[in-house]
Design a protein that fits this description.
The complex is a heterodimer of chains A (260) and B (260). Chain A is of the alpha/beta class. In chain A, 31% of the residues lie in helices and 23% in strands. With 260 residues, chain B is mainly alpha-helical. Classes of the chains: A alpha/beta (260), B mainly alpha (260). The structure holds adenosine-5'-diphosphate and magnesium ion (MG).
Chain lengths: 260, 260
């Protein structure tokens, strides 16, 4: 797949510059640098607990880095109007993070039912059902509560919620974890489609190498708190980087300690 | 342990306690400022009224009726020692309206409402629902905290008023049926004896206790640590803090109303 990066963009959509974050003496990010061009799809890989989710949350301002700079569309994240800032984003959380007191369709349409993007309930519901269909869910789940769905279905509802307001920037935290291979394929295609058709900028975390190949323009591998390797997905197999090679091929032997 | 290190430890825990009081005070102020600012969430407010007010009625009624009944028996037995059995209606009325009504309703609300608010919000925190709210441009202080605190501020005084009446009715029932009081005289004595200040103090205490109960639930819920253990300890701490604060505030308010 060819890189969809927009070469003449004046500035990248997301830029992380020497971001550090520690929780107590657990130093998670130790100078992370990352650049995501506008309209491109970046996939972050790396072992569990290396701080991939922390990196996403830092960009959104849900976690405040200890030091370093984060720029969104050329402006420091956290400057300016917070609502306007967040309105540009959609986020799929690793655990789905559905509101368990609200039926599925109201979860999906949450942003469309209050605040600046508010519209009539029936319209919001129609959009929700359409988004549910796009993630492979039938209209009859719309009125169920999240707790009545399987883990994989909850994940897809979370995905529908993330794309409901058609944001410019979308973060997917492990979108295919817990899905069967066919549904994973559907979700991969959907993410690719969102980037290509809607021109959105996507940042996806995944452990699934087939997802990486299906979704990514660029790949970055997080290890020991820094980006160990980054480049176009086409270069991934000839990187010569022993960390990346070990991860791609899932070997127990290599520079990455299997016991962490 | 040297006296000096003991002093240092005392100093540290005093500072920690003061910092804690400061944080809770700031949180409470923030809950109130977020009530005044749009957007408003009428559905959340209505649900809070239902949860805190309406659904607490049975437990409030039961607590009050048994307490009023027991109070009448005790005052009768105690008063009999110096031929003062006749004061039962007056002392039941004062005891219920000034102290037992507000305190017992406050403590029942701490048990019922504070715990459920803390567990609910802590679970939302642990499952990233609070983060999800933020990314959907919804302020958790406005969406979760303000409606609960406002509903408690308005409904707990009503519950206390109802508790006062039911408590007096409990005392009346026991006095008339078991202790041989004349029904009309009992009611007349009760009504004649109570002053407007008694009722005002009762309702004002109710308002304070309602705010304390809801705020503590929200505060500890929002501060919850990770995992099921985080939820458990948030719930426990919130009820402890609410109960102690309610009793301490009651003492102070009694001083303000009745001995200044
Ligand atoms: N809110 C938090 N408080 C304390 N530690 C955290 C918090 N969030 C993440 N961590 C820690 O940071 C590390 C990275 O977590 P995370 O970003 O979730 O990993 P992953 O790469 O699997 O997404 C883990 O050790 C985790 O325990
Ligand atoms: Mg993660």
């Amino acid at each position: 797949m060819t890189a969809m990066t927009n070469g003449n963009a004046p500035h990248p959509m997301i830029k992380m510059d020497q971001v550090h974050k520690a929780f107590g003496d657990n130093r998670v990010l130790r100078g992370m640098d990352l650049t995501i061009p506008k309209g491109s799809s970046m996939v972050i890989i790396g072992g569990s607990g290396t701080g991939k989710s922390v990196a996403l949350k830092s960009v959104l301002g849900l976690i405040t880095p200890d030091s370093g700079e984060i720029y969104v569309d050329g402006k420091p994240a956290g400057s300016g109007d917070r609502d306007a800032f967040l309105a540009r984003f959609g986020m799929l959380f690793q655990g789905g993070a559905l509101f368990d007191s609200l039926p599925v369709w109201q979860n999906v349409a949450f942003r469309l039912m209050r605040g600046a993007l508010k519209r009539p309930a029936h319209e919001a519901r129609e959009i929700a059902i359409e988004k549910l269909r796009r993630v492979g869910l039938k209209p009859d789940v719309a009125d169920r509560l999240p707790a009545e769905l399987s883990g994989g279905m909850q994940k897809r509802v979370g995905l529908a919620r993330a794309i409901a307001a058609e944001p410019e920037i979308i973060f997917f935290d492990e979108p295919t974890t817990g899905l069967d291979p066919i549904m994973s394929g559907v979700i991969n295609d959907l993410i690719r489609e969102i980037v290509v058709e809607m021109g959105a900028t996507a940042m996806t975390i995944t452990h699934d190498m087939s997802s990486v190949r299906a979704i990514a323009d660029n790949v970055a591998m997080l290890h020991d708190g820094v980006i160990q390797w980054t480049g176009p997905v086409a270069d991934m197999d000839q990187s010569g980087d022993p960390y990346l090679d070990q991860f791609i091929h899932g070997r127990a032997e290599g520079p990455i300690e299997a016991v962490r | 342990m040297t006296p000096l290190s003991l002093l240092a430890r005392l100093g540290r825990s005093t500072l920690a306690a003061l910092a804690m009081i400061g944080r809770v005070a700031l949180f409470t102020v923030s809950a109130f400022t977020h009530m005044l600012r749009p957007p408003y969430y009428p559905r959340e407010l209505a649900l809070s009224f239902l949860q805190i007010g309406w659904l607490s009625l049975p437990v409030v009624a039961l607590t009050a009726v048994f307490t009023g009944g027991a109070l009448a028996l005790q005052i009768y037995a105690g008063g009999a020692r110096f031929n003062a059995e006749a004061v039962v209606p007056q002392i039941v009325a004062i005891g219920m309206v000034r102290e037992l009504g507000p305190v017992l309703v406050g403590l029942m609300i701490a048990a019922r409402v504070t715990s459920s608010i803390a567990a609910e919000i802590a679970t939302m925190k642990v499952t990233e629902q609070i983060d999800a709210l933020v990314t959907l441009s919804t302020n958790p202080m406005q969406y979760l905290v303000a409606p609960r605190v406002l509903a408690a501020l308005l409904t707990v005084p009503v519950l206390v008023g109802i508790g006062d009446i039911i408590g007096i009715a409990g005392g009346y029932t026991v006095s008339v049926h078991n202790l041989g009081f004349n029904s009309a005289a009992y009611l007349k004595n009760t009504v004649d004896f109570l002053e407007p200040l008694d009722l005002i103090s009762s309702l004002v205490k109710g308002a304070f206790f309602g705010v304390i109960a809801a705020t503590m639930g929200c505060y500890y819920g929002m501060q919850s640590g990770r995992g099921a253990q985080g939820v458990g300890s948030a719930t426990k701490s919130s009820v402890e803090a609410a109960a102690v604060l309610i009793l301490a505030t009651n003492f102070i308010l009694t001083g303000v109303f009745f001995s200044l």
